[in-house]
Design goal:
Blueprint (H helix, E strand, L loop, with lengths): L1 H16 L6 E4 L10 E7 L7 E9 L5 E9 L6 E6 L5 E4 L7 E9 L11 E4 L22
Antiparallel strand pairs: 1-6, 2-5, 2-7, 3-4, 7-8
Length: 148
């Protein structure tokens, strides 16, 4: 009996490791600024703290939208992971190997050759512990180990 319990325990452990969606793809609209050379995706398991800013004036961006001109922007080290995405038209990124049951927070910036924009709106994703549309893996190797 102990042998069967141990065998089933190993099967359950390996099955649990394959559960859940361990990656997520985020996307955003292409920037109308033709000087954009790429984007930087930031993500972490902690949310972005509110920025400390000082709005000193405003300007009209390349898209024709009036934006506040800020100084003393402070976001701190809010995101522990970054992915550089090259190219103005590359507007999505897949992040893999996420931990099951953990919530991740994402934001993106656009980059020119010398400058980086403010961060986008933050989005979050919680990796499910169990699949929502995938049946569990069928147990293999089920057998009678001994007869007494």
């Amino acid at each position: 009996m102990k042998k069967i319990t141990l065998l089933l325990g190993l099967i359950l452990t390996s099955t649990l490791c394959s559960f859940g969606q361990r990656s997520v793809t985020v996307g955003w609209d292409v920037s109308c600024n033709t000087n954009i050379v790429g984007y930087t995706l930031y993500y972490s398991s902690t949310s972005i703290p509110p920025a400390i800013t000082n709005v000193v004036s405003s300007y009209t961006d390349d898209c024709g939208v009036v934006q506040p001109l800020r100084t003393n922007i402070y976001y701190g080290k809010f995101m522990t992971n970054t992915i550089a995405i090259n190219g103005r038209n590359n507007t999505s990124c897949t992040v893999s190997n996420l931990a099951l049951g953990k919530t991740y927070y994402f934001t993106v910036t656009s980059r020119t050759l010398t400058l980086e924009s403010d961060v986008s709106t933050e989005v979050s994703y919680t990796v499910p512990l169990f699949p929502t549309n995938v049946p569990p893996t069928r147990p293999e190797g089920f057998r009678i180990n001994s007869v007494q």
